[in-house]
Specification:
five-stranded mixed beta sheet, binds beta-D-fructofuranose
Length: 493
Amino acid sequence: MNNHQEQIEKANKEVAKLKESVSKHEWNLQYHVMPQANWMNDPNGFSFFKGEYHLFYQHHPFGPKWGPMHWGHVKSKDLVNWEHLPIALAPSEEYDKDGCFSGSAIEKDGKLYLMYTGNVWIDGKLDEDLKQVQALAVSEDGIHFEKLKENPVIAETPEGDINTFHFRDPKVWKHENTYYVVLGSKTKKNTGQALLYRSDDLIDWEYVSIMAKGEGNFGFMWECPDLFELDGKEVLVLSPQGVKPEGNDYHNLHQAGYVIGQLEYQTGELQYGSYYTLDHGFDFYAPQTMMDEKGRRILIAWMDMWESEMPTQQFGYSGAMTIPRLVTMRDDRLYTLPVPELEALREKEVQYTDVVIEGEESLEGVHGDCIELKVTMNVKDATIFGLKLRVDEATEQETVLSFDKGEGIVTLDRNKSGKGPDGVRKTEVTMLEIVHLQIFIDKSSIEVFINEGEKVMSSRIFPTNEATGITFFADQQMNIENLNKWHLKQAIK
Ligand code: FRU
């Protein structure tokens, strides 16, 4: 057994110790991917290989806080039911001894390749004097990965206005028989940027150029860039660190969003337009996309935020993925909606039509902590209206989604959501007569899709078990034209 396999085995054993107790814990998510125990952050290596979806994640198997990064691993036939697999990557070599950082996956010659960042701390200082290189691991069965002897395949940062320490998160794709990789970077004076490389064989990489660079309030470092084509345009999804709050925007510690443009493959330059946030909740970072065999662009993200309080840590786990989302483009904006496969989770339907709401009301059978709710509301006379979720009157718990028609603003309020961080997030939303909502609630999360994916708000919340109530409110008459509520089955084994 080589050192890599030994490290993986140690890590698997550590996770196994806690997985039983974590699986029974009240905040353990039922249909979202999360580690069996201990810490998780970014999604990595999201891909489709030999008929199955593979998803990896940044994982610290030895504790509920961030530490030397491994790659955890799950797979699924349908994006709904996920099976845990052994850890795929562990730090084991000189070039990755302090962590296998984020990266991506691609199939070549019937094998699955993972491209990741090897991280080494030089002087124990976390933000300078680190050495980040790009490396590959390969698997025939999609489960056991061998690191390549050619590693690191990108050993140095290129010349130019490029910070030599922060150089990570390779996202690889193929375009007309050539492989490309985009990397997160920053300039010497701390402006976020993305770098482009190309290769014929995944092993020899040629630096092309700085693909895109931030201007104005666009962060000091771009993490986890992801470039893909959609509707004949290029989309660059990225996670800029350090964007300052502006109005209702950018109140999380770090951001995740996209720009749309045109990539000139020869020069490697991306001409791009405005930056937009992908999700307006509290917890959404480092999204990664993949294209499946149906040609769909699917996105998944880490549903937490750096440096946020995570009340599950004391129970031996932390971090989760969002549900997988289908990405489409409309009028040069991205829309994201739950993948339709998630309908397979639905059971015990409750339905209402034409319910007039004035004041605050609950509907029999409409409650729960592991549910999907689809609501079509005719706003009519109401100017302030919305829903309270995970309500427990006795302990005054509630998570409030409220619309202000005059302002055209939707607010998610988790000040009374139970344990954990509080606050509000707001975003502008198109206010028409009819408002469509699709809401996913799991044991410690909520994801709200507004107006068929125009806006999304995702957040962790940590209410008690009793907090399962749902109420509707409206200052003047509004009409619930249609409501469907389903309990959702457990989907992670
Ligand atoms: C983003 C990130 C990446 C890095 C990884 C380390 O959340 O900081 O840039 O590769 O997490 O876990």
